[in-house]
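Entry 14. Ran structure prediction on the chain below.
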Amino acid sequence: MVDTPSPVTDVDFARFCEFLYRRTGILFTPAKRYFVDRRLAERMQATASRSFAVYLARLRADLDGEVETLINAFTINETYFYREDHQLRCLTSSLLPELVAQRPVGSTVRIWSMPCSTGEEPYSVALCLLENWPEVDRYDIEIVGSDIDTRALAAAEEGIYGERALMRLSPELVARYFVREETRLGPAWRILADLRGSVRFVPCNLTDAKTMAAQGRFDVVFCRNVLIYFDDASRRLAADNIYDALVPGGFVCLGHTESMSRISPLFRVCRYDDAIVYRRPREGEHV
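Output, structure tokens:
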């Protein structure tokens, strides 16, 4: 039996939060102490680390992928299909028509969902385009989902969901795009293979300019309900990286409690009937 690790001190807690912040941009305050202590104790016990100092040394060496496992343990994957669907309506009614207005038929439109968690958001984008954008077959649509949680990405590629994840979808949509399966946890629904194949999933860190740049430029970025976990410095860094990830004239959609105007001066505010979004200015256009 593995000995119970020694308790994490206030100094240990601060050092750990600083380590996680530098790796992910997520800032945990003392208000989250119980959550952090519990997750940290689980990982220390799993790695037979008798003290925080031993575990931190293991993280810094990272010879066995423990940092990735740790990050997976601390990410929050609360999502479901058609979450904040007013932005999906805006995508098909306003953003995409505006984006393709001056483009030839057959050109590529790139949409990025980050963090995509277990895939509900990028698959929702794909569903929404198929159901609501008549021009969908006239353009080459590329949808990318990214996250720092590799377990979530693996689940997204599997595309198997429980009843709660589908609660916002009509029975007709579920019947059209999902196949019911029986699992050890009960009934579940798997998204059709063709739809799974329409989304590419990649690991990516929102605060890492290098991994962001590796994905190229996008027309629309969905970055919803993650910046609330960052401090001001990480938010500004994330905003800079999103700006660089957008084509001139491209749009970013944030969560309903988030405002790019309070984070970065780089974007224009765009108010549509269905949603408020933010746009990287076009060439020669001022904010």
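Residues 85-279 form a domain with the Rossmann fold fold (CATH 3.40.50.150). Will compare against last week's run tomorrow.
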